[in-house]
Amino acid sequence: MIRSLFLAVLGLCSIGVAACARSTTISPDPTADPGARLRILAANEPEPRSLAVDRTHLYWTVHREGFGAEVRRMLRSGGAVTTLARGVTGPSAIAVRGPEVWVASLGGASAIENTDPNVHVLKGALGVATTAGEVFFGDATAGEVRRAFPTKSSLTRTSRLPFMLATDERHVYWTELAGGITRVERTGTPTPLVITDHRVGRIALDAGNVVWVDVDTGTISRRPKIGGPVTVIAEGQHGAAGLAVDGGRVVWTHPASGTIRSASVAGGPWTVIAEEQLDPAEIVADDGSIYWITHEGTIVGLEKRDWYGGTPEALARRATRPLDRAGHPR
Q1: Cβ count within 10 A of residue 44
Q2: Do the bridges between strand 100-105 and strand 119-123 make them parallel or antiparallel, or are there none, so unpaired?
Q3: What does the buried/exposed string (b/e) look like for 140-175 if buried means 16 or more CB atoms within 10 Å of the residue's CB?
Q4: Least buried of 67, 82, 212, 229, by fewest C-beta within 10 Å?
Q5: Within 10 Å of residue 299's Cβ, how many Cβ atoms?
């Protein structure tokens, strides 16, 4: 069963992704601000997958044929790559809590395994998220959203497998493999709220919104956490993969076109902020930069000052090829 779940997860993650050969030049469009520069932080990483960031480091998993997956770390500014753990089976997500790295792994039964003093592997888990000293994960074996730290406990049981997780100061949100976004209070109060019943790729939160990739409609959408109508941020995004929200902007990867895209959380025109990336996948943001991984094994960083504008006009000048919400050049 675990193997079939892993294959299903890989299938959902790769919807619309065309793994085809294209240029691997790491450079912004020449029409963009000449001050904008992409930084190659690491290269030749074997099949990098999950990605996380904290105040000092980037963390990710790689797959080495015959050796299982490894958990790796590097300073956000680049430099030496450190391997933290080896032999992890089927990692599906990674999250950081202080000095600890938590990895959701589809291998084996649901149990925490310490492969390194600061690396914790959640076996039988589909997703993991951390906040305020707590760790939550989706238990693929029991069909539950559970707390792993500081005490092991079940928040709620779901009839549909919990997939991607996100947390804020009050709630745990998760996508379900069969479709939909649900939330429950971190105290475990059993009052789930269904945000959408569509198939969902990635999910991200800001102070007031839940943002997601809608696989069925090919849109990037949002809905206020307190409830209300769904707002389409960007259309024509079939195959969108990684997703992050920061500073009033949404950024996502689009593997089939080899681009990184951005739009305001409020909606409106979206722009291509980087192109000629080979199947970009996961993306994360911190207070100064965004980072993503590519199929060729590259970890790329882009400082926000190189593309983030305070006004739509400034953003249009600094980004590549401004497009309207449907993807047509303005």
Answers
A1: 8
A2: parallel
A3: bbeebbbbbbeeeeebbebeebbbbbbbbeebbbbb
A4: 229
A5: 23
Phi-psi region of 87 (alpha: psi -120 to 50; beta: other; left: phi over 0): left
Residue 330: inside a domain, yes or no? no
Distance of alpha carbon 190 from alpha carbon 5, whole angstroms: 26
223-243 pLDDT per residue, tens: 999 888 899 999 999 999 999
- Strand-pairing partners, residue 261, are 252, 272
Please name the residue ranges forming H helices in the chain: 2-13, 312-318
pLDDT in tens, 159-203: 678 889 999 999 999 998 778 888 888 887 767 777 777 889 999
Dihedral of alpha carbons 273, 276, 278, 279, sign: positive
Going 237 to 164 to 124 to 183, the CA torsion angle's sign is negative
What's the CA gap between 287 and 315, in Å, rounded? 18
Match 């007031």 to its residue by tokens.
208
Task: Please give the pLDDT value at position 158.
Answer: 75
- List the domain range (segments joined by +) for residue 309: 2-323
Confidence (pLDDT) at 87 = 85
DSSP-assigned beta bridge partners for residue 251: 244, 262
Helices H, strands E: what count in the chain?
2, 29
Nearest by Cα to 277 from 26, 86, 76, 64: 26
Which residue reads 């600890």 in tokens? 100
Of the pLDDT bands very low, low, confident and very high (cuts 50, 70, 90), residue 314 is very low
* Total count of domains within the chain: 1
What gap in Å lies between CA 149 and CA 101, rounded to an integer? 12
CATH number, domain containing residue 16: 2.120.10.30
Quote the pTM value.
Answer: 0.81
Whether pLDDT at 16 is above 90: no
Does the structure show a pLDDT above 80 at 206?
yes
258 domain residue, yes or no: yes
Mean pLDDT of 72-93: 91
